[in-house]
Amino acid sequence: MRILVIGRDGQLARALAQLNSDALSVRCVGRPELDLLDRDTIGAAITNYSPDVVINPAAYTAVDKAESEQDLAFAVNRDGAEHVAAAAKLAGIPLVHISTDYVFDGHKTSPYVETDTPDPQSVYGCSKLAGEKAVARANPDHVILRTAWVYSPWGHNFAKTMLRLAGEREVVRVVADQHGTPTYAPYIADAVAAVVNSIRTRSNGDWRGLFHLTNEGDTSWADFAAAVFEHSRQRGGPWARVEPIATKDYPTPAKRPTNSRLDTTLFSQTFGYAPPHWREGVRRFSETMLPR
């Protein structure tokens, strides 16, 4: 199958590129060839590559900066997503679109399921929810995947920041009252491969819809950092002591959900793939970042 990935340099785009094989021909296309702010480039890329499936992990992800760049966040996360979905629909191609836990307010005390009512508390979350709705309207042949706390060996992310800080200081202060699931980008790519296989083999369309996708288990940012440091220490890399702090002690322009846990049961039942525990992701991350 021919897969067109929107974006080239992001964490998920880099992970999806690793799926390239005899069975899956993956092409990642980003700026300037394809720009989510330029509708014509989106249609041209789909026409030129003629994929069987389009995957859109590209987004405006500067969560705090979005508070002062609302127009740009919506232009990318809502309008750009809609243009991708519409161009795919015009070509008769299904779309896999990546969204976020930030569509929820974080007040629920148990993991969020797909039928829970979204209530984003930040511009970023609002723009991503608007993108979900736009995608669903523009192309009925869609799979929307909400994920959370994504990290990888590529780009900017929490785990890489922790390793950098561990090389600079002995103690790192990390928020301990926000809970979610660290999700390793290569596992998201594996899950997307399962989605693509369902699209390829099922003719009844029961793969369509909205799904939650993270690694298994949950933790806090502080304990996530501690796990990263422990694996790094074991491999001779930088490590630090974690000082747990409250959200109020680390104010940010954008409000973060206190609870980012997502129930992934529906995804596993539908696609037959359950990503491993988040700690396994940290182990793989550490092996990649700190080879012996």
Walk me through the topology.
Elements: E1 2-6, H1 11-17, E2 25-29, H2 39-49, E3 53-56, H3 70-90, E4 95-100, H4 123-138, E5 142-147, E6 150-151, H5 158-166, E7 171-175, E8 179-180, E9 183-184, H6 185-201, E10 209-212, E11 219-220, H7 221-234, E12 241-245, H8 265-271, H9 278-289
Parallel strand pairs: 1-2, 1-3, 3-4, 4-5, 5-10, 6-9, 7-12
Antiparallel strand pairs: 8-11
Helix pairs in contact: 1-6, 2-3, 3-4, 5-7, 7-9
Unreliable stretches: none
How are the strands of the biggest sheet laid out side by side? 2-1-3-4-5-10
CATH evolutionary superfamily: NAD(P)-binding Rossmann-like Domain
Number of domains: 1
Q: Mean pLDDT, nearest integer?
A: 96
Q: Report the biggest beta sheet as strand number plus sense, adding barrel if it closes.
A: 6 strands, parallel
In helices, the fraction of residues equals 25-40%
- Tally of DSSP β-strands: 12
Q: Element order, helices and strands?
A: EHEHEHEHEEHEEEHEEHEHH
Output the CATH topology.
Answer: Rossmann fold
Oligomer: single chain
Computed structural class: alpha/beta
Name the overall outline. Answer: globular
Q: In angstroms, what separates the terminal alpha carbons?
A: 36 Å
CATH architecture, by name, is 3-Layer(aba) Sandwich
Outline of the structure:
The protein has 292 residues and is α/β, with parallel strands linked by helices.
Describe the structure.
The protein is α/β, with parallel strands linked by helices and about 290 residues long. It has one domain: NAD(P)-binding Rossmann-like Domain (Rossmann fold), CATH 3.40.50. It has helices at about 10-15, 40-50, 70-90, 125-140, 160-165, 185-200, 220-235, 265-270, 280-290, and strands at about 1-5, 25-30, 55, 95-100, 140-145, 150, 170-175, 180, 185, 210, 220, 240-245. A 6-stranded parallel β-sheet has the order 2-1-3-4-5-10, sandwiched between helices. Strands 6-9 form a two-stranded parallel ribbon. α4 (about 125-140) links the parallel β4 (about 95-100) and β5 (about 140-145). α3 packs parallel to α4 (about 125-140).
